[in-house]
Amino acid sequence: MNASSVLSLVREDLRAFAGYSSARSSALVGDVWLNANESAWANPADPQGSARRYPEPQPEALRARLAALYGCTPEQLLIGRGSDEAIDLLVRALCEPGRDAVLVTPPVFGMYAVCARLQNAPLLEVPLVDSDTGLNADIDAIIATALSGKAKLVFLCTPSNPAGSSIALSDIERVATALRGRAVVVVDEAYGEYAEQPSAVTLLDRYDNLAVLRTLSKAHALAAARIGSLIAAPELIQLLRRCQAPYPVPAPCSALALAALEPAALTTTAARVAEVKAERARLQQALQNAPGVRRVYASQGNYLLVRFNDAQRAFDALLATGVVVRDQRAAPQLGDALRITVGSPAENDRVLQVLTAGRAAA
Ligand code: PMP
Fold first, then answer.
1. Can you tell me where the transmembrane regions are (predicted)?
2. Plot region of 103 (φ>0 → left; ψ -120 to 50 → alpha; else → beta)
């Protein structure tokens, strides 16, 4: 596939879109900066004046660090306000309203459908299939529906939120191959750090219609900093950058993210991920044997999807002790399910105290 073909998937009216030219995007050199209508003085609350100037549109030091972390080049990576922003950007740039469809695999993270609706993009739903091994993506149905329904974007969530299942790299390759020249396949790896499977970033050199989402919100514990990454072909990244807000990454957030990617912080993050995995196994084991629990799905994320005889009762019993979990019952396939985030050992004990004591049993 040549370099221009992924751009042929972008909305026709945007292919030559110039975007906004921001004060920080030029190659100008100077020591008196009077081109952005910034204040000449620092705010008293910011005595160092570190927030006085507009930030770099794509902070290069952070971009390089994130690229090294995820195994791509800086040119393949776009930093956004969480991966949420990347999802929105992709839908807006690729889907001609009223025509180009977005394919999702419910039950799944709701933002894909929200962004599709905002863009008036038709939504194609290929439900996960429940089996002994879990709630899994139906690869043949995804390919067939994407082709017949004219999908421009296919969202594959792996590990899947809330199901916890992952999609094999060979299956991701099958989808990308089948949809070459027709759709961009977005692999959402928001929970990738907790999974056994390697990242789909390794496939990017072979499929320019593939994009990968990563975030610092989960394993790196920086949800409030809103630092997400979209990794894709450089020409798509450049185009999406032109569609993005002028200064999407606040300077205090990029500084925090850079600090979080120092070796010592990464070592701590890796230890926490290992602890979450151990706690996930402990919780799963204990919940499987709890009264009123019908099924605990194996999970590659930092959460467990649990079916109950009476999910409302379990939800209320937890809430009565101050433990808030995610009610999944709005999803048609999950009328009896709750999603429970794996917390600290003490937090998980609180969950188990309620659920193993039979307070959720119907
Ligand atoms: N993808 C998935 C699967 C998620 O569950 C979430 C958040 N819950 C996101 C993306 C968005 O994460 P963020 O915008 O914080 O990067």
1. none
2. beta
pLDDT at 69 over 80: yes
84 CA distance to ligand 1 centroid (A)?
Answer: 6
- Is the previous residue joined to 250 through a cis bond, with omega within 30 degrees of 0? no
Distance of CA 177 to the CA centre of its chain: 22
Residue 228 Cα: closest atom of ligand 1: 16
Best probe residue, ligand 1, of 90, 128, 217 (max atoms within 8 Å of C-beta):
217
Domain count, the chain: 2
Question: Which residue's CA is minimally distant from atom 2 of ligand 1?
Answer: 190
pLDDT at 10 > cutoff 90: yes
Say whether both 230 and 310 belong to one domain: no
Q: Torsions phi, psi of 249, nearest 5?
A: -115, 100
pLDDT the model gives residue 1: 42
Does residue 23 have a pLDDT over 90?
Answer: no
Using CA atoms, how far residue 109 sits from 104, 324, 325, in Å, is: 9, 19, 16
Contacts of residue 316, defined as CB under 8 A and 6 or more positions apart, other chains included, come to none
Q: Using a 6 Å CB cutoff, which residues line ligand 1?
A: 82-84, 109, 157, 161, 188, 190, 215, 217, 223, 228
Q: What is the CATH number of the domain that holds 127?
A: 3.40.640.10
Range of the domain at 104: 39-261
Q: Which of 261, 291, 310 is the last residue of a domain?
A: 261
Please choose from 104, 108, 111, 128 the residue to mutate so as to test ligand 1's pocket, defined by most ligand atoms within 8 A of CB.
Answer: 111
Mean per-residue pLDDT, 43-57: 95
| pLDDT tens track for 235-257 | 999 999 999 999 999 999 999 99
